[in-house]
Design a protein that fits this description.
This protein has 129 residues and is α/β, with parallel strands linked by helices. It has a single domain, classed as Response regulator (Rossmann fold). Helices cover 40% and strands 19% of the residues. It contains five helices and five strands. The protein has helices at residues 19-32, 42-52, 68-76, 97-103, 116-126, and strands at 11-15, 35-39, 56-60, 86-90, 108-111. A five-stranded parallel sheet has the order 2-1-3-4-5, sandwiched between helices. Strand 1, helix 1 (19-32) and strand 2 (35-39) form a beta-alpha-beta unit. Helix 1 (19-32) packs across helix 5 and helix 2 packs parallel to helix 3 (68-76). The longest helix is centred in the first third of the chain and has 14 residues, at 19-32. It binds manganese (II) ion. Residues 17-18, 60, 62-63 line the site of manganese (II) ion.
Length: 129
């Protein structure tokens, strides 16, 4: 990897239950200069949002406990958190998933496998960086 980029004053919450994906995405975002916090299930995701008020959330939709769909619904129903952009991540995307993700309030949608580089690009685009 090249030298890490200058710090970017934005916090990304990465919600992902797969430790391998979490490590890759988190590493790439940190390398790009973001502050990254992680959650591996729905309850943790909700707690982290309360604690840290992230600037953007990358949301794996299939996570244990409260799934990503429901976490998104709850956040978008809460005026404190509804402005936070949420980009959904799904593996084995099914027909209709994207539409459904946008319906529950996701601002964007990416299907896995996806390169970490592309994830960083999308995050920057949503944050207008
Ligand atoms: Mn998952």
């Amino acid at each position: 990897m090249t030298e890490p980029h200058a710090p970017i004053d934005r916090t990304i919450l990465l919600v992902e239950d797969n430790p391998h994906n979490r490590k890759i995405f988190s590493g790439m975002l940190a390398h790009a200069g973001f502050r990254v916090i992680e959650a591996e299930d729905g309850n943790q995701a909700l707690t982290r949002v309360e604690e840290t008020r992230p600037d953007l959330i990358l949301m794996d939709l299939s996570i244990p406990g409260i799934d990503g769909w429901e976490v998104t619904r709850r956040l978008k129903a809460d005026p404190r958190f509804s402005p936070i952009p949420i980009i959904a991540l799904t593996a084995h995307a099914m027909r209709g998933d994207e539409e459904r993700a946008l319906q529950v309030g996701c601002n964007g949608y990416l299907s896995k496998p996806i390169s970490p580089k592309k994830v960083v690009e999308e995050v920057k685009r949503y944050l207008k960086l």
